Amino acid sequence: MPRRTATLEDVARAAGVSQQTVSRVLNRPEVVSARTREQVIRAMQALHYVPNRSAQLLAGKAAPSIGLITASLTLHAPSQIAAAIKSHASLHQLEVAIAMPAQADFVALQARLDELRAQHIRGVIVSLPLESATAERLVQDNPDMACLFLDVSPEADVCCVRFDHRDGCGACATCGSWGIANLVCWRDRKVRFPPVCVSPAGARRCTV
């Protein structure tokens, strides 16, 4: 007998939360505490739950198309970068789902990628300072996700955006718009894009 498809109600019951909380994790994860998000994600994984995007669209809910993993938006620079990315994303009719890990280690970042994957998001901008090894492992372990990093070593074997730190967060925000363009390109072509290094003065493609 075929297994019954898990519902949002099943996930809520398994996670010990309300259906509204599960919905928030799917649509506005940034407003849900990390602990609750992890409970819900674990329940989704255990039940093999797949969000019903058709139902969400019929209900008038726009599905987020790209993800942004960032430091706390209570900090000035991350909030400015996030605002710029959201602004540029809207020009491409894209929503941005924001995830803010408590720590920038592999386990926490992988959990955030899993959350975004559960929302059928396949393009993510990572606006956190990361060690090359961490960024490279995230890319290797998530081949179905296009990850673009804003703060990694130029030597890292990943897709990245580079800018002069002396120009401040404004330069990074400008680079964020280049990141949106790359993710849109990846989404439309349905292929992985090669690593890209970009500066506000001009784009420079780097094949690695």
Automatic annotation (TrEMBL):
Gene3D superfamilies: 3.40.50.2300, lambda repressor-like DNA-binding domains. Pfam families: LacI. SUPFAM superfamilies: lambda repressor-like DNA-binding domains (SSF47413), Periplasmic binding protein-like I (SSF53822). Keywords: DNA-binding, Transcription, Transcription regulation. Residues 6-60 form the HTH lacI-type domain. GO terms for molecular function: DNA-binding transcription factor activity; transcription cis-regulatory region binding. InterPro entries: HTH_LacI (IPR000843), Lambda_DNA-bd_dom_sf (IPR010982), Peripla_BP_I (IPR028082). PANTHER family: LACI-RELATED TRANSCRIPTIONAL REPRESSOR, LACTOSE OPERON REPRESSOR. This is Lac operon transcriptional repressor. It comes from Klebsiella pneumoniae.
